[in-house]
Design goal:
Length: about 1250
Amino acid sequence: MSDLIPILQKIAKHRQIRNVIDALSQATPQRIHLAPTLSAARSAVVAAVASQRDTPTLYVVRDGEAALRAYADICQWLDVASVLLFPASDAIAYEHMTPGIGAVAGRLKVLQQLQNRHTTNTTSLPLVIVTSIRALMQPTLTQEAWAEATIHLQQEAQHNPDQLLQTWVDRGYRTAPTVEEPGELSRRGGIIDIFPPGDDAPLRIEFFGDEIDSLRRFDPVTQRSQSRVREAMVGPPFEAPLWQYEQALTRIRALPVETLRQEAREEWEAAIARLEQQQLFESQAFFAPLFHKPQHWTTLLDYLPTNSPMLFNEIQLIEQQANELHTQAEDRRMLQIETGELPPTFPRPYLIWDEVVNRRTAQPLINLSNNEPDSNADDTDISEQGMVFLPEHFASLPAPVFANTDHFGGQMRQLVADIVARLGASEHITIITPQAARIQELVTEALAQSETTAQNSSTSTEPKAALPETFVAIHGALDQGWYNPDFNLTLYTDTEIFGWRQRRPVAERSRIRDRSAEERAAFLRGLRIGDHVVHIEHGIAIYDGLVRRDVGGVGRDYLNLRYADGDKLYVPVDQIDRISRYIGSGDTTPNLTRLGTQEWERAKRRARAAVQDLADELIKLYAQRQMSEGHAFSADNEWQHELEDAFPYIETNDQLRAISDTKSDMENIQPMDRLVCGDVGFGKTEVALRAAFKAVQDGKQVAILVPTTVLAQQHFDTFTKRMTSFPVNVEMISRLRSASVQSQISQRLAKGQIDIIIGTHRLLSKDVHFKDLGLLIIDEEQRFGVRHKERIKQLRANVDVLTLTATPIPRTLHMAMAGIRDMSVIDTPPEDRMPIKTYVLPSDDRLTREAILREIDRGGQVFYVHNRVHSIYYVANKLQQLVPEAKITVGHGQLEDRQLERVMLDFFSGKADVMVCTTIIESGLDVPNANTLIIDNALNYGLAQLYQLRGRVGRSSQRAYAYLFYPPERQMSTEAQERLLAIQEATELGAGLRIAMRDLEIRGAGNLLGSEQSGHISAVGFDLYTRLLEQAVRTLKEQFAATQQDQSAERTEKTAQSTQAEQPIEEQTTTAPTNGRRAPKIKVDEKVLVSPLVTLDLPLDAYLPHEYIEDDRVRLSVYQRLATAETTATVRNLHQELRDRFGNLPEPAESLLTWLMIKALALQASVGSIMTTAEEFVVRLPENTPLDRENLRRRFARDRAIRVGPQFLRIDRRELVDDWRIALTGVLETLGKEKVTQMERLAVFRKQTRPS
């Protein structure tokens, strides 16, 4: 229940609101003009009216952004479950485009809940639906079609799964290997997965014959079931009856397509052909109007009861917006008819204003307005006067008096003084903000101080309450506050307190993919047929797919690898982790390895030696940081919690992990060196902000280094705004500041008067000094030059370092993968973020004009990137002639500082529609209203740069578009084609890491660590090279830690001896000087560079049958996961997952899991191999781990089947009493326990025999 309920109840009981409620209860529908209603209080009024009704209340606002704000506000006033948002589809009228699944799902969810409420007669909760006029103008399914498309499922009910599947395909569900997105459908034997867009989670239906055995909701990310349900409703996936294709085809064929130009006519005929075959296709939503009966539109209003009140936020402005949308669409229609893109009689795909408001003449209407109606208007009941929506045609009722409150702009002293004064005058004060506890603390302190002062000047010693009941602090967020004299109440929000508005989405995160580290690893090393691959033992080959082979009467799946001279190698699927995709040092095709020769071993030896040298260099860096002592920052305090609670969005799981990892590093005595890799707009700045605040609370200074002045200004605004209520001094130094101001900032910084300094490379100048720098934050390190990086190295010494990047530079990525730098990955998108629709096309003036006009039509802005300053004004003038309706501005790095600042501010504030610019916008720029990007001559950009530029759009809940144009006459290189294809394919949110790895594939990894390593990377491939380096570094780190522990123990003992015998302590032999200390010399054992491989030869048909997992890519993905299972717990977990996702395991799949369980036990016991003959199993005992053979013989003495030798343990199959699987499992478990026992004894022995 909302903490605002007491205030809401007061509003609902107010006499003016009671008059409205009474009017709505009359038999005759009312049209009420409620004024003057302060805009800040309208959400509260809507919530109050809805709370007194038992039918849904519709609240209509001007546009989508206003709907989001109203939705968030009303959720704060009421229970979240009782408020729904009905969004507008992002499809544009007369455009061949597919609407975003998020908007479709949001609309269907509302319709489904209204249908459920109607059919189940549920009226217990007040229900408010918030929508925009655009959403209301868009037609949807009729209720009859909805009922026809909805299937009610119940456990134990009878349904033929084949018929059910076909029905859902006919309705428009898309078949997919795995169900991850709304509208998808998958079948695996007796299991059907389906994701109804109106549901929060997909549904798994398991059949026993034709009977539904179970219904389960499952996680679309992990694919694991989460909860069981007894029944479920599966509704349609679209808002058009696509199954009624015959009627639609009749209407389509009647259209005069002969007026279309040739290309458009061919596309039209292709679409008709797909419809005739009932195939889904990209632009089918364009034909949706033809699936509806002419002039028989259905809208959201038709799903509402006739007595549901409609509340309008300024109905005249809404009518004006509806007419503007209609005019824009008509202009677009006429243009498309003139250019031969659209048949002249194509039906209008939306309702106009009159059609919307005249649908439900019996519906009560309330207009919330600031304006009083015309005093000469007839004030009688207007239900008989028609539906002309002018203020004078409404019955006027006075609204409760709400007034605007004072604004404090972050001046906390003034705010607290105002609150104390008002409380002293017996006024009620409510504040609602994420920083409520902090403000309550300030008010409490101020009241206590005023009481102390009063007591000092008075003889009274009677104690007073520190915080009166008339003051309430609520943790939350509203758009605006107000004052009501009738309640003697002032409501303060962040708008009044700080001067900025919170936006905290309330919607669920269930549909957001939150990839685990395990998924990322599989993603980075995914295999495709035809790829060059590297087998860790056998070398470079071509992957030719999965094959089933019977060897010795035992069937298994193998990976088919083709080597030089056509030689083939069949690799068992449980060894798939030995194989990776090949990435070389350039764009040359690698030579395939010749099997049966020593060339691969020679290549590995050379690479191993090179890796060793590099690892030694890297470990010196690591040792220096480990042996350095930085500042161990304090644990979080109340202020830290307050700052974090003020974050206006919902943190993603990835983001929370990155924040936790960063704080943990900061609280450690060793200096932090963490890389946070997160996609553009995914919340890296918030990680930096919280780390910076943590550092400041310990009295340390923070330097934030950014590549551009624009980004510096943006960070400065963000940090200043978020830390306004705390005593933190934030400053910015860049070329946007005058020389005298920069000099003053430098002086204050040196004196410690500035806590956080944000700057460009100007921050690296020699005249900039810190009093006590504790944290260095580097945003997009790859944007700085060599000279700047040398200065950065000087700043890093003994200082915590946090690096932020969206597309990590290869060396940085490599060091993170090799374990030298800690890396946090944020690849979960923020709430409501949609993938960017990306097009790679030859330059086209018509398409450019359409793209710009479409963005302007929906109230957005456009970035047009042209990276040539000398011709940028020519391009801007040409663009102005092409789109005269647009306001165009130009921005580039050669403008004077003040001029550039003015251009940027004008664009930020919406004074320009289009910014023609260079790549100055590349880093970190945040303009949520800019949702279309056009890149001129995209061939001239690198992959990472294209990705960064595309990240400038799509930073809000609106669908964003990116057009990558190239000259049609220019011949593209293979590399350029791969770049553009990669950026077009990487449409999923969070693809920054993928882009970095794809960039490695395209450009090669030769410049990763310099030319001296290039040949070795080419010889063995980047993945194996990285594995060798990663394992070498891990070994060196372990040896370094052990050496440190030994040296620490020796120093302790020698200190004790010197105390007794007064002998000098012998100086330790070390290397890599750091603060007077050096890291120990370390040797590496090459045997540990390659992970252990257990060779198994078992009498089992062990594979995943094609009938069990039909999709080859899914089956290969499952094999990849199975091959990496190294513990029995992981194997058991995977067994449960397979049972859950694909149904009961057939015998070969069960055998495969048995195989993996034996492999995990063998790994645990360090067994080298298990071979099978007709008479016995031969277990090779571990060589590196000392096992007491005599003890093993005693353990197995009573078992006649087992014999223990020096190297092998043999199990006689003829003497076995139990099934051989049970016997072999028991032997391996015993070996594992014996290994642990021996290792513990060895550790004790080493400790006892350590020299004094």
